[in-house]
């Protein structure tokens, strides 16, 4: 969203996945995820399956664990895996992560095709945020997908279907 609003000529179509152009509070789960990710790095795992076993103590949903583990990469200097974003940087950024940097839709607006996808069990794109969505992205479409905030991991086939439908030229 920020790229589309700050440099709209670089964006042809925009898909926002369970995020709205408003300041929001992160759910407390993010601290729990970070704690589990630290345990993964401390264990110096060499396989994702080992990391998944550790994360199970912090998150029972396989889709969410799989999403978190997409950021786990093999270090070029040793045999164990680490997270792509250094965990101290991630930890220090959590408080500001849900802040939206633009406040005035009169100065920043994206008028290209925009799809907002929201998880039906998530609170991040509540109906109350839709006026702000429309102010910043006047040509937006909205699609609800069964799932929580991690809708791409929790319901990948439904997400793929709405994304392909949106991106397919209908002419």
Measured as a percent range, the helix fraction is 40-55%
**Low-confidence region ranges:** none
Structural class: alpha/beta
Mean pLDDT: 90
- Give the SSE order as H and E letters: HEHHHEEHEHEHH
Q: What can you tell me about this protein's structure?
A:
- This protein has helices at residues 2-6, 29-42, 48-55, 62-69, 87-97, 130-136, 151-154, 156-167, and strands spanning 14-17, 72-74, 81-83, 114-119, 140-145.
- It has 171 residues and is of the alpha/beta class.
- The strands form two sheets. It has a three-stranded parallel beta sheet with strand order 1-4-5, with helices on one face.
- A hairpin with a 6-residue loop joins strand 2 and strand 3.
- Helix 2 (29-42) crosses helix 3.
- It is globular and about 50 Å long.
Feature tags:
171 residues, alpha/beta, two-stranded antiparallel sheet, 8 helices, 5 strands
At a glance:
The chain has 171 residues and is α/β, with parallel strands linked by helices. The chain is built from eight helices and five strands; from the N terminus they run H-E-H-H-H-E-E-H-E-H-E-H-H.
Layout of helices and strands, plus pairs?
Blueprint: H1 2-6, E1 14-17, H2 29-42, H3 48-55, H4 62-69, E2 72-74, E3 81-83, H5 87-97, E4 114-119, H6 130-136, E5 140-145, H7 151-154, H8 156-167
Parallel strand pairs: 1-4, 4-5
Antiparallel strand pairs: 2-3
Helix pairs in contact: 2-3, 2-5
